[in-house]
Amino acid sequence: MLTAEIIKSQLGGIQASINFKTLEPFANFAERWFTELVGVPLMEYLQEITTPEAGSDEADLLYLAHSCMSWKCYELAFPHMKFKAGELGLQKVNGQNAVAISKWEYVDSKEANLAMLDLALENFWSAMESIKPAAWTSSTAYAKRQQVFIRSAGELSEQVPTLGRKNRLFEQLLTYIRRAEQNYIRPILTDADYVALKVKWRDPAATWSAEEQMLLDFIRPAVAHMALFEAYPYLPLTLDITGITESRSKDGTLEQVAPSDNNKGTQKRQLYQDGQQFLADLTEYLQATATASLFPAFYQAQLAKVGTQQTDDFTNESLIIL
Fold first, then answer.
1. How does pLDDT run across 214-231, given as a tens digit for each residue?
2. What spans are recorded as compositionally biased (Polar residues) (predicted)?
3. What pairs with residue 244 in β-bridges?
4. Would you give the end-to-end CA distance of the chain in angstroms?
5. Which of 25, 108, 133, 243 has the fewest CB atoms in 10 Å of its CB?
């Protein structure tokens, strides 16, 4: 779907003479990323738009889709464009009258590329919510996006402006948004009303009364703040095969340092508490649903526990009961 002409028209900093073969592998991965994000039906719909009328909804959607994929392609390719690999190994090539950029300029450019990707995504989702093409609203990707009441970085930043419109941060917080809805919103609404609201939220043709819209307006800020509360112990530290590190930013450069004992202890306690909560939720669900035919082993184990509970028997005991 991406071509050299599309990428160059979207990215003002790309040289007109750059060889598309340099970007093609990253363009392919950008297309796969976007397909996973929006679903196959919408991608097929966009690919069928060949000559859209200027100013039409189709032209707007296609342009924004190209923008998302182009900036994702450039983000992926950017670190690899510093060097040239060949039989002599890695080389850094500077053309005539060219000057190598400094470290801070590279870091600043990389952040600017990610900011443009975030902006392209926000504009794309805004257009999608306004236009709602049938290829999108009938897809599983649409149903997946509608699983939560806060669906994008832009919607999250409306509730907590200090977060900014950062899609990368939103993707990290999505797990905690789901958790906040389950742990805090569902008990308040009750199961029946919560499920009914979710079903209606996933219906693209649903109409909302003023009272229901007001309910959503109360739910979103609560979800946003409680999601951050749930995520807070996890955000400072990164766990990978090299161990536990703490990320810090200095003069625009990201540094990874050994975490403090306090942060490690806080995250360890939070992991245990969350694990215990999830185990309790699992046990509660099994106790409520297990029968002789559904989860029979657990059901029999529960019966055995109940059968072993006996009342105290003081027969033939030399006790005085007052």
1. 999 999 999 999 999 999
2. 259-269
3. 239
4. 86
5. 243
- What pLDDT score was predicted for residue 215? 96
Task: Look up tokens 């800020």; give the residue.
Answer: 221
pLDDT at residue 98 above 80? no
Is residue 187 within 8 Å of 180, Cβ to Cβ? no
- Are 84 and 90 within 8 A, CB to CB? yes
- Dihedral angle, C-alpha 233, 125, 45, 72, nearest 10 °: -60
How far apart CA 106 and CA 112 sit, in angstroms, is 10
Q: Of 34, 20, 123, 27, which Cα lies nearest the Cα of 74?
A: 27
Residue 92 has pLDDT above 60, yes or no: yes
Listed residue (170, 129, 176) closest to 152, CA to CA: 170
Percent of the chain whose pLDDT exceeds 90: 52
Q: What is the pTM of this model?
A: 0.78
Using the predicted structure, report yes or no on whether residue 280 has a pLDDT greater than 60.
yes
Indicate if 209 and 278 belong to the same structural domain: no
262 CB-near residues (< 8 Å, 6+ apart): none
Contacts for 104 with CB less than 8 Å, ≥ 6 apart: 251, 252, 253
Residues 208 and 254 in one domain: no
Do 66 and 9 share a structural domain? yes
Establish if 275 belongs to a structural domain.
Answer: yes
Average confidence (pLDDT) over 184-188? 95
Structural domains of the chain, count = 3
Measured distance CA(197)–CA(194) in Å, rounded: 5
Q: Is residue 94 part of a domain?
A: no
Q: Are residues 54 and 170 in the same domain?
A: no
Domain of residue 172 covers: 146-232
Whether residue 67 contacts residue 122, with contact meaning beta carbons closer than 8 Å, is answered with no
pLDDT at 318 over 70: no
Report d(CA 276, CA 55) in Å as an integer: 54
Judge if 156 and 137 occupy the same domain. Answer: no
Per the domain annotation, does 192 fall within a domain?
A: yes
